[in-house]
Amino acid sequence: MALKKTTVMVDEDDLREIKQAAARDGRPESEYFREAFHLAAVRARRWTEDWDIPTFDFGHPVSAEEAHQTVRDATADGA
Predict the structure, then answer these.
(1) Is the CB of residue 27 less than 8 Å from the CB of residue 37?
(2) How many Cα atoms are found within 13 Å in the side-chain-facing hemisphere of 11?
(3) 31: which residues sit within 8 A by CB, 6+ positions away?
(4) pLDDT, tens digit, for every residue of 6-22?
(5) How far is CA 15 from the centre of its chain?
(6) Cα radius of gyration (the chain)
(7) Range name among 25-29, 40-44, 57-61 with the lowest pLDDT average
(8) What is the pLDDT of residue 16?
(9) Under 8 Å between Cβ of 27 and 34
């Protein structure tokens, strides 16, 4: 991964939190900022291709209550 240096302005309270976390966790502050930039980049990404999300046909419309009951039954069985 090629890295490029940049300068950003940050809220003083946020910076203080990052400095404290870095000291506590023994990580460089820069790792926190790289992680934040990556999360922002992923969030801002736009997908050009259609997603292949499977659909299911239960033969009838599924109500919210039916979905909730199915989850309750599955979790009650320890699934």
Answers:
(1) no
(2) 3
(3) 22
(4) 999 999 999 999 999 99
(5) 21
(6) 22
(7) 57-61
(8) 98
(9) no
Query: What pLDDT, on a 0 to 100 scale, did the predictor assign at position 72?
Result: 93
Q: Residue 78 pLDDT more than 60?
A: no
Which pair of tokens denotes residue 42? 């992923």
How far apart are the C-alpha atoms of 19 and 26, rounded to whole Å? Answer: 10
Question: CA–CA separation, 14 vs 19, rounded Å?
Answer: 9
**Centroid of chain to Cα 50:** 21
Residues 64, 69: Cα–Cα separation, whole Å: 9
Instruction: Give me the DSSP letters along 25-61.
Output: HT--HHHHHHHHHHHHHHHH----SPP-------SSP
**Mean pLDDT score across all residues of the chain:** 91
